[in-house]
């Protein structure tokens, strides 16, 4: 926030001087939705996180994807599968990025504008992905079962998980975590108005409350406070505070505490012992390393250390991240089965073509769904309504 300097020479009329003096005692009113300069490296990092998750879903786990390959990905990729197993941590990196971006976009923005921005960003591509996956899975030639029509309709609300409804998109559990984060941030920060002090207090309160929820083992508190994911969202918020002022000791403290707690949850939930019957062995060191690199990468962007990565194509690539993330898993299974089992293409070729086809589909969704519908939905939700 810059301060306008006004001349107060002796020739200035007394009334103007008094008005200027009064203006110095009144804090500047933030401009709603003030835009920051584009952090293109962050766009690239978002796509990297999405690709990590995709690699995990195609080559880093067993389950339904094994039916698409015909055998376990462990057999298809004897070396890659061990590294691909760490790709699931792309979700935690997403959450760090989300904390950064939501704090940045919510600062100085009224609640209605914040809600309109988030809804318009998430819903068009999400609705299209739900319809598309449901339609493809309903085809007789596809080996996977579609959810019931009733469950598919409930999925359009993004509330299928708390309602106990079958999910159309396997990755939508992360969107439910995002929605809860948005709600907490909106109620505690955006509604009363974002200030540095309020954001710091929010981070401290959420961190402490999440730890208490973990100790209390109370399902309702877990549902609201998300102890295992809160450190990543809070860490991203702390990184944004550092982005605003790299000398902010509290911001650095928030980042450090969030990293410490976040790596604990990541290791606890994702580590598995070395077992020949296990799909892959994720070591504590490997998990901590990936989490650390994720925090460090977002922090490097925040500090301007990656300003040199200011290529325009990163913004275009970043625009593919969300639709790619939505469709890559389930539709990727269909493509893998068609290419590897149907056309008998080698595993490596199938893997590359599946990633490419999902990126192409994401480009189509971005071009024909997000670009036309997102601004219209945002405008409709931002329109003043009657009382």
UniProtKB/TrEMBL annotation:
Q: Which UniProt keywords apply?
A: Acyltransferase, Membrane, Transferase, Transmembrane, Transmembrane helix
* Ranges of residues in domain Acyltransferase: 41-362
Q: Which residues cross the membrane?
A: 44-60, 80-104, 125-147, 167-192, 199-217, 223-242, 249-267, 287-306, 313-336, 348-366
- Tell whether Transferase is among the UniProt keywords: yes
What is one GO biological process annotated to this record?
lipopolysaccharide biosynthetic process
Q: Where is this region: Disordered?
A: 1-32
Q: Provide a Gene Ontology MF annotation, just one.
A: acyltransferase activity, transferring groups other than amino-acyl groups
> What does the entry list under GO cellular component?
membrane
Question: What are the Polar residues biased-composition ranges?
Answer: 1-13
Q: Which InterPro entries match?
A: Acyl_transf_3_dom (IPR002656), Acyltransferase_3 (IPR050879)
Can you say what this protein is called?
Answer: Acyltransferase
Organism for this UniProt entry: Streptomyces poonensis
């Amino acid at each position: 926030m810059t301060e306008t300097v006004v001349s107060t020479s002796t020739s200035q009329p007394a009334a103007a001087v008094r008005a200027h003096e009064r203006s110095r005692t009144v804090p500047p009113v933030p401009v709603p939705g003030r835009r920051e300069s584009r952090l293109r490296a962050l766009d690239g990092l978002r796509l990297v996180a999405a690709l990590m998750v995709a690699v995990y879903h195609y080559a880093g786990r067993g389950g339904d994807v094994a039916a698409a390959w015909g055998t376990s990905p462990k057999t298809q990729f004897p070396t890659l599968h061990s590294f691909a197993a760490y790709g699931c941590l792309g979700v935690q990196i997403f959450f760090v990025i989300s904390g950064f971006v939501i704090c940045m976009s919510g600062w100085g923005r009224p609640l209605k504008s914040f809600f309109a921005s988030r809804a318009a960003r998430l819903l068009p591509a999400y609705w299209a992905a739900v319809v598309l996956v449901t339609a493809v899975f309903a085809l007789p030639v596809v080996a996977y079962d579609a959810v019931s029509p009733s469950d598919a309709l409930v999925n359009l609300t993004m509330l299928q998980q708390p309602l106990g409804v079958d999910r159309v998109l396997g990755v939508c559990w992360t969107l439910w975590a995002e929605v809860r984060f948005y709600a907490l941030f909106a109620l505690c920060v955006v509604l009363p108005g974002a200030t540095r002090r309020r954001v710091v207090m929010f981070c401290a309160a959420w961190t402490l409350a999440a730890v208490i929820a973990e100790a209390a083992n109370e399902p309702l508190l877990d549902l609201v406070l998300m102890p295992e994911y809160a450190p990543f969202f809070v860490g991203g918020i702390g990184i944004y505070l550092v982005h605003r002022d790299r000398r902010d000791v509290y911001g650095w403290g928030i980042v450090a505490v969030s990293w410490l707690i976040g790596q604990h949850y990541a290791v606890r939930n994702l580590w598995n012992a070395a077992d020949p019957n296990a799909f892959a062995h994720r070591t504590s060191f490997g998990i901590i390393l990936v989490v650390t690199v994720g925090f460090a990468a977002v922090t490097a962007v925040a500090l301007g250390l990656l300003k040199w990565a200011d290529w325009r194509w990163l913004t275009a690539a970043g625009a593919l991240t969300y639709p790619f993330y939505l469709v890559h898993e389930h539709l990727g299974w269909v493509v893998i089965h068609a290419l590897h089992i149907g056309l008998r293409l080698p595993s490596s070729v199938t893997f590359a073509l599946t990633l490419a086809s999902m990126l192409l589909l994401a480009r189509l969704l971005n071009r024909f769904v997000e670009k036309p519908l997102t601004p219209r939905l945002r405008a409709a939700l931002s329109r003043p309504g009657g009382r």
